[in-house]
Queue: 4 jobs
Job 1
Amino acid sequence: MSIWLKSTSHYKVPFAIILASLAAIFGMGYLQGGEQAAQGVLDYSIRQIAFQFPIGLLVIFVASRIIEFDFGTIVTISLKVLAIAAFCLAISVAMFVFAGQPENSLITAAINFVAFLFLVMILFGTSGLETWIIAALSVAIPYGLNHYVYPAVKGQLENKPAATAPERGRRR
C-alpha cells in the first residue's frame, strides 16, 4: 500500500501526528477563550491521553497474541498508540469547538472511529480483518475492565478490614 503517510521510519510519522494534534488542541482552546482556556484544554487532553495510553498498549498486546502479528518494539508501539489517542482527541475537541458537539455525542464517536480505523491501518500496517480485531478489542477491553474487573477489585477492597495495630496489654 503506497500512501503519503506511510514512512520507512516508525518514529517520524507518529511523532509528527502527536505534535500536530497537541498544537491543534492548543490552538482550538486559544480560539475559544484565550491563553487560560488553551492551557485548560491542553491539561485535560494530557490527562485523557494518559488514561487512554495504557489501555491502548493492552489492546495492542492482546491483539498481537490473537492474530500473531508483530507490531514492533515497545517504543514504536507506544508512539503509535499515543499518536492515535492524540489525533482522536483533537477530533473530539474540534467537534466541540466548531460544531458544538459534546465529546460523547454519536457523530463525534463515529468520526473518531473512522479516524481510529484509518490510523491503525496506516501506522501499524494491518489488513482489514486485523484492524477490525483491534477495533473490537479497543471496545471490549475497556468495557470488561469497567464492568467486571473494577467492581471485583472494588468489592475486595471494601470487604478487607482496615489494618489496625494489635492491642497491647496495659503495663502498671
Job 2
Amino acid sequence: MPDDVPSVSQIVRQLPPSFRGRFNSLGQYVQGVIREIRGNDAPPLSAKRLRFIQLMVFIYLLNRYLEEGTKAAERAVEISNELGFESFSIGRTVFSKDNENTMLGRRLAKELLSSVNEPALIAIFQQSNSVRSLVRNLLFKTRLING
C-alpha cells in the first residue's frame, strides 16, 4: 500500500462524530454476519481484514443513502410538477428537475465510489444487493485485493 494512503483507523478518526458512531456500530453487525457466513468454528479474521470489510460496508451503505436521497428528491420534484409547480424549496435550497441540489446525492455517491479506486471492489458493490451479500462477496472475492 502506498505511504500516502491513510489507514482505516485514520479514516475513521476523520469522520464526523455521528458517522464515526455509525461506523463503529457496524463492527458488531459485520462480525455477526461473518460468523453466520463462515460458521462459529472458522478461524477469526485478522483485525485488518475485519476493518477493511467494515469500511467497505460503511461505504456501501453511505453510497446507497446518497443515491436514495437523490431518488427521493427526484420524486418530490415529480410530485411538485404534477401539482403545477416547477420547483420547491426547503429553506433556501431550491429543488427542480435535474438541478444541482436535486442531483447532489448522486454526484456525491459517484465521487465516493471513484475514491475507492479499485475496479474489483466497485464491481462487488454493484453485484451486492444487501449488506449480507456484500460481506459474502468481500469474504470470498477480495483475498487478492486485501490479502
Job 3
Amino acid sequence: MDGRWKVTVAGGLVLSGLMGCSGTPKMPELPTPPPPPSHSANSVYVPEPPDDGGKKDGPLATSTLIVFANMWVEAVANDPNKPAADRERLLAQAQKTYHEVLQREPKNVEALLGLGHMYQVSGEFAKLNEVEQKARAMHANNAKVWAWLAVRHAQAKDFDAAAEYYHQAARLDPENRMYRINLGFTLARGERYEEGYAWLSRCMKESEARYNLAMMMLHNGHPEQAKKQLGLALQTDPNFKAASDQIAALSGPSEAPRRLHPDIQTVGHEEPADAGPARRSVGGDE
C-alpha cells in the first residue's frame, strides 16, 4: 500500500486462493456470471459480494470486508472515466465498510489506513488529516503506519515530512530494506543528495546507489550533478552499461538531458502527471 511514486524494484506479490471438493459424483451446474454494466465503455467492472442465497454462519471476517473495500476504492482511483454515480456508490460502500470494521475492531490498522486512502481519492483532505492524526496516536509503534504517512506526504511533495516519516518507519523496523531505500530516494527527491546517497549506499552497491542518485538529480533538473555521479558509478564499475549509456545521452550535441529508460521509477510513490515518465531504480530488489 506503501500509488503513487513507486520504487519498482524486482519483486512481486503472491495471491493465494481456496479450493474445495465434493463427494457427490454429479457435478452441479455452474451459475452464470453477471454481465458487466453497460453504462460506460471505458469503465472498469467491479465485482461485488453475491447476494445471500443460503445459510450463513456469521458475518464476513473483517479481513474480507477490507479486501472488498480496498477493491472499490482502487476501482475509483484507477478509472478516471468512471461515471459519477458509480464513483460515489463505490466510495460510499467502501466508507461504510471501513467504518463497520472499525466499529468491530477500533484499532484495526488496515481499515484505518484504507479509510484514509479513500478520503484521499475522494478529495476529502480534512478527513484524511483526521485519519493521519488518529493513526499516529493509536499506532505510534507501527512502522507500516509511518511508511503510509510518508507516502501520503511525498505525494503532496512535502519531502521533508515524508523523509521524517520514512526515517521513523526504518527506526521501528530496521530490517525492512524498502523503508531505507525509500528514505534515500525521498531525501534525494527533496534535493538532500548527500543524505539520500548515505541511505542508498547502505542498501545496494556503490555504483547502483550513485546511478540512482543521478537519476533523481536528472528528475530534479540537475544534469551536471547527475553526470558527476554517473562518472563515479563508472569508476566503481566500468561495465555498468546503464550509467555509460546515460552519460552518452547527456553528452550528446544538445547537452539536453533525456530520460533514458522510461520504465525506471526512482521514488516509491506516484507523482502527478506533470512529473514526467516514471523510472525504475537499479539495485532495489524487494
Job 4
Amino acid sequence: MTQGGPGRLGRALAATLLVCCLATAGCGGGEEGGAGSADDPPATLPPDPVAAYAKDVRRVIRLATEEAAKAGRHVNAAGSSDELAFAVGEFEAVMSVAAENYRGLEPPRELRNLNDRFIRLHQSYAEQTATTRGAIEQGDTKVVRGFQKASRTYASELGLLAQELDAAAAES
C-alpha cells in the first residue's frame, strides 16, 4: 500500500471505527431492566409496546457495539492490506447484521418509520464499508477520507435516531 502502508491506514480506520463504536454505545437511552420506581405501573399491566420496542433496539445496538469493537481491534492489528481488507469486511458484516436485526423487530405502528430509518442507516453504512474494503483490496488508500466522513455521518444520524426513540419512549 502507499502512503504509510496498512499500519497507518489501519490506525486511521481503527480510530474511525472506534468513534462509531462509542457513538453506537452511547445510543439507546436508559438502562434495560432496573429496579423500577414507585411511579412504575403494576407488573400486571400489559407491556408498553413503545418501551418493549425501545428495549429491543437497545439490544440490537448493544450487540452491534460489541461486535464492532471486535472488528475495530482486528482493523487496528492488521499487518497487511489483505488483513486490513478482511477486518474492514468484518465491520461491514456487523452493520449488515444490525440492519437485519432491525428488520426482524416489530415496532409499534407509530415507530415503523423510525425502524425503517435504522435499517436504511445501517445498510447504507455497510455499503460504504464495502466500498472501503474494495478500495483497500485495490490499493486505494485515498478512500479513507470518504469513509471517515461517512462514519461521522453514521454516528451523527444514529445519535439523532436514538434521541427520537428516547423521546417516543418517554412519551409512552
